From TrEMBL:
InterPro entries with a match to the protein in the record: AfsR-DnrI-RedD_regulator (IPR051677), BTAD (IPR005158), TPR-like_helical_dom_sf (IPR011990), WH-like_DNA-bd_sf (IPR036388)
Protein name, as recorded: Bacterial transcriptional activator domain-containing protein
Domain named Bacterial transcriptional activator: residues: 94-230
Pfam families (UniProt xref): BTAD
Length: 270
C-alpha cells in the first residue's frame, strides 16, 4: 500500500483519494480512531461517542458497517480485537500526530525548518465544518496545541533573528486569538528590531482594538513598547527607583559635607 497522508486539521482529506472511506460515518470512525490512536478503543464506547442519539442496536450496526468501509479503503488499518478496536499506525503520515509530536520537542536549528513548513501547511482547525458533538473537545485541545507550537516557533524565530518568519508566526496566532496580548507585544518588538516604528505603532493599535472588544486596556508593558516606538525614552520603573535613591543619597552626602565645612570654618576663624 502506498504511503498514506491523512489531514484532519482544516478540511478532512486522505491522499491518495481512493483511500478515503466512502461514507461520513466511516470517516468519523477513522478520525475518532486517529485521535485516540494511543490506546485500545472499546467498541460500545466508540459507537456511543459517535452516534449516542441512536439506539444501542443502531449504534452497533453503524459501527459494523463503518468498520467494514474503513478497512475496505485502508486494509488492515483498524483492527477488531473482540470488544476493542486498535488502529495500526504503520505507513501513515497524519497531521495531528505530527502536531502532538512537535509540541513535545524543543525547536532548534536542526528541526526549525520542519516546524516552520508544518505550521505553514496547516489551513484550519480540527475537522473544520464538522459539527458533531464528539469533535468539540478534540477541536479545542488541538486548537491549544496549535497555538502552543506557534508560540514556541515565534520565540525561536525572534531568538534566531528570523524576523520575517516571526511576523508570519505571530500573525497566525492573532488570526486564531486576536486579543492574545503577549503575541502583540512580541510583534511590536519585532517591528522595532526591524527598524519599523510605523509598523510597531500600527501593531499597538491593532492590539488596543482587539482588547477593547473585551473591555480591556493594554498592559503597561505594551504601552511601554508603544512609547518606545514613538521615540520616547522612558527608563524602566526599577531603574528610576534606583536613580531616585542614588540622588537622595548624594543630596545627603552634600548636606553632610556642607555641615563639615561650616564646622571647619568656625574652627579656623580667629
Amino acid at each position: 500500500m502506498p504511503n498514506i497522508q491523512v489531514r484532519l486539521m482544516g478540511s478532512y482529506s486522505i491522499v491518495p483519494t481512493p483511500c478515503t472511506p466512502e461514507s461520513k460515518k466511516a470517516q468519523s470512525l477513522l478520525a475518532h480512531a486517529i485521535l485516540n490512536a494511543d490506546r485500545l478503543l472499546d467498541r460500545d464506547a466508540v459507537a456511543t461517542s459517535l452516534w449516542g442519539e441512536c439506539s444501542p442496536e443502531m449504534r452497533r450496526g453503524y459501527l459494523r458497517k463503518a468498520l467494514h468501509q474503513v478497512n475496505k479503503a485502508l486494509p488492515g488499518w483498524l483492527e477488531s480485537h473482540g470488544e476493542h478496536l486498535l488502529l495500526q499506525k504503520d505507513h501513515a503520515e497524519v497531521d495531528v500526530w505530527m502536531l502532538q509530536d512537535l509540541c513535545k520537542k524543543n525547536i532548534q536549528d536542526s528541526n526549525y525548518l520542519q516546524v516552520k513548513d508544518f505550521l505553514m501547511s496547516l489551513q484550519g482547525g480540527l475537522l473544520s465544518g464538522w459539527e458533531e458533538e464528539w469533535c468539540w473537545f478534540e477541536r479545542e485541545r488541538h486548537h491549544h496545541l496549535w497555538i502552543g507550537l506557534l508560540e514556541k516557533a515565534l520565540d525561536c524565530a525572534v531568538q534566531m533573528r528570523h524576523l520575517e518568519d516571526a511576523l508570519q508566526f505571530g500573525t497566525r496566532i492573532l488570526h486564531l486569538e486576536p486579543a492574545h496580548e503577549p503575541t502583540h507585544q512580541t510583534l511590536i518588538h519585532v517591528h522595532l528590531m526591524r527598524g519599523d516604528r510605523a509598523g510597531a505603532m500600527k501593531q499597538y493599535q491593532r492590539c488596543r482594538q482587539a482588547l477593547q472588544e473585551w473591555d480591556l486596556e493594554p498592559a503597561p508593558q505594551t504601552t511601554g513598547l508603544f512609547r518606545e516606538a514613538r521615540g520616547e525614552t522612558t527608563a524602566p520603573r526599577d531603574v528610576l527607583s534606583r536613580l531616585t535613591d542614588l540622588y537622595q543619597h548624594m543630596l545627603k552626602l552634600q548636606e553632610d559635607t556642607q555641615q563639615q565645612l561650616r564646622q571647619i570654618e568656625r574652627l579656623i576663624q580667629p
